[in-house]
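pinned: reference chain
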Amino acid sequence: MRKLAFLLYDNRSGSTLLSALLSERAGVAVSHETDLVPAVLEVPARRGVLGVSELVAYLYTETRFAELALDRETVAAALRRQGETLSREAALHALVRHYFETHAPEAEAWVVKGPRLHYHLDALATVFPEATMLHLVRDGRAVFRSKRTTPSGYALRTGEQDVMDADLVRAACNWQRKIDLVDAFDGLPVATTRYEDVLTDAEAALAGILETLGVSESGRERSGTRAAFVEHQIGHSYHDLHTNVAGDLNPAKAVQWQRDLRPAEIEAYEALAGGALDRYGYERLAEAESGVWQQARLLGLRLRREGRRWAALGRAMRRGDAVRLLRGKAFEWKARRSA
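pinned: its structure tokens
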């Protein structure tokens, strides 16, 4: 029986490397990175059902879906086999099946890769009750270091100067929130892999994942290359972000953030997201009594009291009392000027 899995990760966590390593195996197919699942779950529906024409038109406005190399008419035909109107569940089943039957019909395991799956875990458990979650975690401090130096999708499309995330507070809260969502989820089996363990011993890390996916011995044999995955599965505008995927694995990359982040930034990040760092075995470097640590911790506690930290952070920033600048060993609180 074919296994379906969803890959959960934060951006800049090594998901492309892990996907490329899995795709080398004959029995595993990993999708292009796509917002297919969130798009179907979030598209407005009339009385709980979706019209095929409207759904197809909506999907092809999503850049990553358009890069899936699926013919528009065949997508519409696959959906219409379920009827002119269909539920979100039926649409997702039809689209996932059509994608993999088009690209990898012989694979034993299908892995759907998407950056926003964390926010739809309960829906995925309802729609795909036999699926498995593959949870990839990278040290949040390394994730932040990478995000603030990596061009955003907007920058890649427009040529403007912009990075994924240069705001330490937002990055730390967002990283921990995704971790917390997965840790609290019990609707489907979750198999967690650390990016650092992939760099250190890729064969051991992959063996555990392949066992989880139930891939046969013949399916574990190599039949592809990481370079081929990057060429065919990564959108052309994103190729420059993944030039190292096909190269040798370098465990030193796991600690590069220690050289690039300032001590005050490390302290602040650990104060905001230390709980998740601890749970996944990432050692803290900062002392817990500095002024930076205390102020960042107070901000984190306030955001947690307000409930959803991401929404609370947005409200705090609009009020003008979020951390705005980080200088030396202390946070500087700066009110936003009214227009």
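why pinned: Strands lie at 3-8, 28-33, 50-51, 85-86, 109-113, 132-137, 190-194, 323-327, 330-333. The CA atoms of residues 37 and 92 lie 7 Å apart.
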